[in-house]
């Protein structure tokens, strides 16, 4: 109902705006077909938009490639020249594919709002990958870069024009690129000039290789990568070993939507994902390093990378990093859909952590890319994490921004996935899950048994997932893995308030008893964008409190088990959530609203957890859980 009211408000506002439309916009044919196919909402979801009146005849858009095709990654200098009257409303969009519609579609604002993005963004009929106002060049309005286009007989300049140069970060997302210059700002755009298509040198290039564990033996690792070519490719690893890939893909028909308003994934946010290749490397040994490369002679090969397998179940030690809600952010001054400002600092800090050689695996627990139906953003996210996920096992849990949408079967019918409904997530991150659209799993590394659930799929008693959790927790061999860590996305405990609330009491009442009954030691959740740690808590009451050790570190003694300790680690990139100044709960022992991640080191008897500020590398909270042999 709230979504329908929002839609009616936007329609009313846009109709009023149309009645007083700008004289700068000439009549043009209204677009009737969206980029992804016919839109059920096409009669009102399009507005006329054409070439601006009297554009300068000297306008040019030049790109710093020298006419060569685009490389796999570049920071392009894009120069707009020949502007007769610089204006604050001038902006430049990077669109892909180059034949995408640049007609104006103001109701596409609903497509942004439904995923939670309230930023001011250009409302075109096909989502622009990124955009910048020409005022990003500080000399633009003052015409600091000028040229004389026409001279008088006396030799003095008769027509002088101005220029701006902007930097755009581009990566190989396979489809060609075009830069389009607009006037009228984001709200009332009209086209001034198009650059023409800029293709990538190798759209089939294998890219973004990332690793995941497939079982607890650590003798096999899965490698997943993206390419524009469907033919089988290979991963070459170790001393002469090879594994052949299986390629899959998905189309906009696999995205979900509702009849009244097409989802971003189904309509103007669609981007062809190419092909997702996956290959299984076998015959490995735990805690060993191997070199690998992937691709083929026909499409090219990746660079050679070194990775390390995690420790096998039952071995003495494990070190891992865990965070949630990362997303991505532009590496240039552009605006994009759904920017997560802390994502780059967290990625860089984890990369620095990995250089110490003390990271065996990474857990990213929901809200992975925040693409939310704007599918080219998966490529940018995969590019961001490649330095991390190409070297150690990168394990994931599904979140609301990967799965939820009306009519999709999610527990929560919010439109948070933008119509993706888990399809891109499961394609890019194949976990050792129970089955398709059953993204829960368990895995053991070192002294830890991990249980990874989906808070977005049914978890009530007697559901498939509930029965699986109960069975898995009942089967843990504590002599092999004395620690049990439970992982999901939405938390059971959080001091931060929100609309809707971050904590679902039905989820807590259904699943929390399982944690206590099976003596789960530690619980990690995300979803709330900060860090928070509890006492040993059950049903909102502290069953056990930590004591300071000799170094002053809070220490929970689980030799006499009381209840799980919960930690929210959703500070991986999204805009931070604060904490109330009054009315704090007694179970909340530590609260930090800074970007960062948790690093964990577990032996058979001692587990140290530290929250690391990604901007300063400072440890801002730490605690231990200890126990004797069980």
UniProtKB/TrEMBL annotation:
Q: Does the keyword Secreted apply?
A: yes
Q: Where is the Calcineurin-like phosphoesterase domain?
A: 319-531
Q: Which InterPro entries match?
A: Calcineurin-like_PHP (IPR004843), Fn3_PAP (IPR040974), Metallo-depent_PP-like (IPR029052), MPP_PAP (IPR041792), PAPs_C (IPR025733), PAPs_N (IPR015914), Purple_acid_Pase-like_N (IPR008963)
**Alphabetized Gene3D superfamilies for the sequence:** 3.60.21.10, Purple acid phosphatase-like, N-terminal
GO MF, one annotated term: acid phosphatase activity
List residues of the Purple acid phosphatase N-terminal domain: 206-309
Q: Supply the SUPFAM superfamilies for this chain.
A: Metallo-dependent phosphatases, Purple acid phosphatase, N-terminal domain
| Keywords for this protein | Glycoprotein, Hydrolase, Secreted, Signal
- Domain Purple acid phosphatase C-terminal as annotated: residue spans: 563-622
EC number(s) stated in the UniProt entry for this protein = 3.1.3.2
Which residues are the signal sequence here? 1-20
Catalyses: a phosphate monoester + H2O = an alcohol + phosphate
Give start and end of each Purple acid phosphatase Fn3-like domain.
71-202
Looking up Pfam families in the UniProt record yields: fn3_PAP, Metallophos, Metallophos_C, Pur_ac_phosph_N
GO cellular-component term (any): extracellular region
Spell out the subcellular localization from the entry. Answer: Secreted
In terms of superkingdom, the source organism counts as: Eukaryota
Q: Subunit structure of this entry?
A: Homodimer.
Q: Which family is this sequence assigned to?
A: Belongs to the metallophosphoesterase superfamily. Purple acid phosphatase family.
Official protein name in the record? Purple acid phosphatase
Query: What organism, scientifically named, is this protein from?
Result: Oryza rufipogon (Brownbeard rice)
């Amino acid at each position: 109902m709230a979504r329908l009211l929002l839609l009616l408000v936007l329609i009313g506002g846009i109709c009023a705006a149309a009645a007083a439309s700008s004289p700068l916009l000439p009549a043009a044919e209204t677009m009737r077909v969206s980029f992804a196919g016919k839109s059920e909402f096409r009669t009102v979801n399009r507005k006329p938009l054409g070439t601006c009146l009297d554009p300068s005849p000297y306008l040019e858009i030049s790109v710093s490639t020298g006419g060569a095709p685009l490389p796999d990654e570049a920071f392009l200098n894009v120069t707009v020249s020949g502007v007769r009257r610089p204006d604050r409303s001038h902006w430049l969009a990077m669109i892909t594919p180059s034949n995408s519609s640049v007609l104006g579609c103001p109701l596409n604002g609903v497509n942004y709002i439904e995923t939670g993005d309230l930023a001011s963004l250009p409302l075109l009929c096909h989502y622009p990958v990124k955009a910048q106002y020409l005022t990003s060049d500080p000399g633009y309005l003052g015409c600091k870069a000028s040229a004389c286009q026409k001279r008088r007989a006396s030799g003095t300049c008769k027509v002088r024009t101005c220029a701006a140069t902007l930097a755009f970060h581009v990566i190989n997302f396979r489809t060609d690129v075009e830069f389009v210059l607009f006037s009228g700002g984001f709200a009332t755009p009209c086209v001034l000039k198009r650059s023409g298509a800029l293709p990538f040198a190798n759209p089939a290039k294998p890219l973004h290789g990332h690793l995941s564990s497939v079982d607890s033996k650590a003798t096999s690792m899965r490698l997943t990568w993206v390419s524009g070519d469907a033919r089988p490719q290979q991963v070459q690893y170790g001393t002469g070993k090879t594994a052949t890939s299986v390629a899959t893909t998905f189309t906009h028909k696999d995205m979900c939507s509702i009849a009244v308003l097409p989802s971003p994934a189904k309509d103007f946010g669609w981007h062809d994902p190419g092909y997702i290749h996956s290959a299984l490397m076998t015959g490995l040994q735990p805690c060993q390093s191997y070199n690998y490369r992937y691709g083929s002679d026909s499409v090219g090969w990746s660079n050679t990378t070194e990775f390390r397998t995690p420790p096998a179940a039952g071995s003495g030690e494990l070190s891992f990093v865990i965070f949630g809600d990362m997303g991505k952010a532009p590496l240039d001054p552009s605006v994009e859909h759904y920017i997560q400002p802390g994502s780059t600092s967290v990625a860089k800090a984890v990369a620095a952590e990995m250089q110490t050689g003390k990271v065996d695996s990474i857990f990213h627990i929901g809200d992975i890319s925040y693409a939310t139906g704007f599918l080219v953003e998966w490529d940018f996210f995969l590019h961001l994490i490649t330095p991390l996920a190409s070297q150690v096992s990168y394990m994931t849990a599904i979140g609301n921004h990967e799965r939820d949408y009306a009519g999709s079967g999610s527990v929560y019918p919010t439109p948070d996935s933008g119509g993706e409904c888990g399809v891109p997530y499961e394609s890019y991150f194949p976990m050792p899950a129970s089955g398709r659209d059953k993204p829960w799993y368990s895995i053991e590394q070192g002294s830890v048994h991990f249980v990874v659930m989906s808070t977005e799929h049914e978890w009530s008693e007697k559901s498939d997932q509930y029965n699986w959790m109960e069975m898995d927790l009942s089967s843990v061999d504590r002599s092999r893995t004395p620690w049990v860590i439970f992982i999901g996305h939405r938390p059971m405990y959080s001091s931060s308030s929100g609309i809707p609330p971050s904590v679902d009491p039905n989820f807590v009442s259904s699943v929390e008893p399982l944690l206590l009954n099976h003596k789960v030691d530690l619980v990690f959740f995300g979803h709330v964008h900060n860090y928070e740690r509890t006492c040993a808590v059950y049903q909102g009451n502290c069953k056990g409190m930590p004591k300071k050790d000799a170094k002053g570190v809070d220490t929970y003694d689980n030799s006499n088990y009381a209840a799980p300790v919960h930690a929210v680690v959703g500070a991986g990139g999204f805009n931070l959530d604060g904490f109330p100044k009054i009315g704090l709960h007694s179970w909340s022992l530590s609260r930090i609203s800074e970007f960062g991640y948790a690093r964990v080191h577990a032996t058979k008897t001692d587990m140290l957890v530290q929250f690391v500020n990604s901007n300063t590398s400072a440890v801002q909270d730490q605690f231990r859980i200890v126990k004797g042999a069980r």
